[in-house]
Amino acid sequence: MAKHRTGGDRFVWGLIIVIVGVIFLLGNMGKVSTHNIFSTYWPVILIVLGLWQLVGSGYRDVFPGILLTALGVIFLLQRLGRLPRNVWVYVWPTVIIIVGLWLIFGPLFRRRSRSGPAVAVDDLNASVVLGGVNRVITSQSFRGGRASAVLGGIDIDLRDAVLDQGQATIEVNVFMGGIDIKVPRNWKAVVDISPVLGGVENKTAPLPESESKATLFIRGTVIMGGLEVKS
User: Which of its termini does the chain have fewer beta carbons within 10 Å around, N or C?
Assistant: First the structure.
């Protein structure tokens, strides 16, 4: 994940915590009704996180930010009485449809990262829905590809592979699932992921340029799921 996001993430979460603390303080002083504020305006947190996701990702992957912001606006309008109270029965099927469209068309509209070669779908094209997939790749000229996990998991083992011209890119999309990628110890992994209510871990050891034999670029989106890269 891009290092420049770390300070900004800390600022956003710190600001949210400070605001929550101020509300509790004012509530204890009898100045405001804490219950009414939180029960009515909690969707503002989703809106803030969605907008930060858009800005923090450099608008490379707009879907997660738009989804969070849209959900926040819908629930806020519902709490303010501008939408029917049973709005959720319409929201969750719409979210499922949007996720499906994102999996189909997302790569066409996502702004390509400035680092890493283009994605070669022919070398890796793994997708799973409500299940699990285990891919062991031993290609001696691996060029990358795409992997999508929805309510399922994908294990990608590249420890016996060799990257074509020393570089390759894997584009991942995760929704309520997980993807594990294993790489050789002498590979450098560059992870550029937009997580939304999910986790991304790069457990590979940092290598000096002189010791790195190849570089694998991993980019994409993780929503309510996880991605782990390890040696």
Answer: C
